[in-house]
Amino acid sequence: MNDARPSRSVLVTGATGLVGSAVLSRLVAEPDLAIHVLVRPGRDASPPERLAALGRYLGRPDLADRVVVHAGDVALPRLGLGAQAAARLAATTTDVIHAAAAVALDPDDPAVLAANVLGTRHVLELFAPHSRLFLVSTAYVAGLCPDVFREADLDVGQAFRNAYERSKFDAERLVRAAYLGAAGSLTVCRPSIVVGEYATGRALKLMNLYQMLRLLAGFAQRHPGAEFALEHDPESTQNYIPVDCLAAMIHEVFTRPACWGQTYHMVNDRPVRNADFRAMLEAILPIRIVNRALTASDPAFNHAAVRRSRDYLAYLRAGPRFHCANRDRLSSAAAPMAFSQAFLERLLRFGTGPQGGRHASVGL
Ligand SMILES: NC(=O)c1ccc[n+]([C@@H]2O[C@H](COP(=O)([O-])OP(=O)(O)OC[C@H]3O[C@@H](n4cnc5c(N)ncnc54)[C@H](OP(=O)(O)O)[C@@H]3O)[C@@H](O)[C@H]2O)c1
């Protein structure tokens, strides 16, 4: 018997993304874990080159030696792997962390269905139910559910804001059907909106909130002291989870067998009210955000900014309420993550600063 053989062998999809990279940076510290990642070729970089770039970003220049890279694409049958390579991987993988997805709120983006629904189906075809699956879903499978959405809930007859939410809901349904007789092997992680690290605001990719902050910061720079018209419900809440807090929770459920087989709302226990969010922004940026519909006399930039953020602004209305009984039992969930003005300042500083955290700027 070979005692040196790692006891678990995990395949991570989505490792070049905001969430997957943060999870990977924790997994590499696990001594008895073989790590495989599925990576697409980039526009200018091969999968191994992308992994090397990720290692530099994570401060782990040894990443390429620690991790086995498979060039592939979840939207393709067998994840784009050759028949033999796919069979070998399926036979030796004890665990899958499936984080790959097209996180696009644009209703016309064809990648959403291909990556999120078809991609999940392809993962299941190779690995379910003999490998444990840690699915990175989203808390917004709750869609527009008007009631408190529980971790045990999925289909409560909810409507969805966009095709992305619907695709993640469909993917969760597929996964639950595939693990029906093996529920202990399926762990579902449902993050809320993911933002940068709590202490620094640093993020590998600038999405969602960052885009809106950049637009608002640009407006404030051009029109200091001006009004910015933004219709919102002041009492609704937004739920942001710092990516390092999320990665710690995913890492905890991955490494503690007692956590397996559950669903976790990996959300902030203190969502921020729109009214408070607005007050924080106004304390940081020299603008006044007024809660009203745009009029013809508002500047073109205000019109353009609202138009460009339209898909995201849907999240400023009717914030869902997530029940978190399983999440609250995680020790990692006790980490500080309050959405304070100081945190918003860090997000703004990073998101609008020169490094900008843009994917391309780190060679990914
Ligand atoms: N960001 C959020 O606010 C948020 C909130 C809730 C849940 N989530 C979930 O968290 C997970 C990770 O999202 P993220 O925030 O890390 O997004 P992200 O930064 O855009 O990363 C997405 C990852 O998926 C990979 N990917 C996309 N399509 C793929 C394909 N066809 N084949 C292989 N890999 C593919 C991307 O690879 P490339 O680098 O090649 O593009 C990237 O590694 C997703 O399941 C998402 O639904 C995210």
Q: In short, what is this structure?
A:
This protein is of the alpha/beta class. It has helices spanning 18-27, 47-58, 63-66, 83-92, 111-127, 163-178, 209-222, 243-255, 274-284, 300-308, 310-313, 325-328, 341-352; strands at residues 8-13, 33-39, 67-71, 95-98, 132-136, 148-149, 186-191, 193-195, 227-229, 237-238, 240-242, 263-266, 272-273, 288-290, 321-322.
Approximate helicity band: 25-40%
Q: What is the overall shape? A: globular
Report the C-alpha radius of gyration, rounded: 21 Å
Number of strands: 15
Supply the CATH class of the largest domain.
Alpha Beta
Identify the bound ligands. NADP nicotinamide-adenine-dinucleotide phosphate
Q: Which whole number gives the mean pLDDT?
A: 93
- What kind of sheet is the major sheet? 7 strands, parallel
CATH architecture name of the largest domain: 3-Layer(aba) Sandwich
Element pattern in H and E:
EHEHHEHEHEEHEEHEEEHEEHEHHEHH
The strand order across the widest sheet is: 3-2-1-4-5-7-12
* Strand content range: 15-25%
- CATH third-level topology of the largest domain: Rossmann fold
User: Ranges with pLDDT <50 over ≥5 residues?
Assistant: none
Structural class label: alpha/beta
Assigned CATH superfamily of the largest domain: NAD(P)-binding Rossmann-like Domain
